[in-house]
Design a protein that fits this description.
Largest sheet: 5 strands, mixed
Helix content: 25-40%
Shape: globular
Strand order of the largest sheet: 1-5-4-2-3
CATH class: Alpha Beta
Order of helices and strands: EHHEHHHEHEHE
CATH superfamily: Thiolase/Chalcone synthase
Strand content: 15-25%
Length: 185
């Protein structure tokens, strides 16, 4: 990592923590990947209101894409009324990125990677170094439900991590204070 770019905060969110998360009425409508991603970002405790939101980027890596949600959506094809239109919005791997941006009014660059998360920090550094962003959220979601685990011959997991990278000169005390939670725009 470049010496002028630092980790301002880091967090992890698990499916167990979702049971007690109180992040507003809309939170319950999100798919599992989006819920974990939003919770991981909330746990960072960053006051995004104190930062220029158009200068914050989001880099998201999704291990299995939206496969868990895709399978749930597909199962609904034979249900009365057909598949859920609410669930349809989450059949895109980048939906968690959109939910984070909406919740925090972040309008900087957004990138979604499918599979491995090894490029997240490198890409965030590139955005900051190139002047495209002053800070960047790196979010990695690993949502492999038991059903998806069978399809992929993988281990079931539901976890998200979030890291906030920023220029050392831009990190201000107010950016490290917890943000209020519970209200969606």
């Amino acid at each position: 990592m470049s010496s002028s770019i630092i980790v301002g905060a880091a967090s992890t969110a698990t499916s167990e923590e979702l049971k007690t998360a109180r992040l507003g009425t809309r939170f319950g409508r999100l798919d599992l990947c989006s819920q974990l991603a939003v919770l991981a970002v909330e746990k960072l405790g960053i006051d995004f209101g104190s930062l220029p939101r158009e200068r914050i980027g989001i880099c998201l890596a999704v291990k299995a894409g939206s496969l868990a949600t895709d399978l749930e959506y597909w199962k609904g094809r034979d249900a009365a009324g057909g598949p859920s239109p609410t669930l349809f919005a989450y059949t895109l791997p980048s939906s968690a990125l959109g939910e984070i941006a909406i919740r925090h009014h972040i309008t900087g660059p957004g990138l979604c990677f499918f599979g491995d998360d090894s490029y997240l920090v490198e890409e965030a550094e590139r955005l900051i170094t190139a002047g495209e962003a002053d800070a960047c959220l790196c979010v990695s979601c690993k949502v492999i439900t038991p059903e998806v685990a069978q399809v992929l011959d993988a281990v079931s997991v539901a976890r998200a991590t979030a890291t906030f990278l920023t220029r050392a000169s831009r990190l201000v005390a107010s950016a490290a204070t917890p943000s209020p939670t519970g209200k969606w725009p």
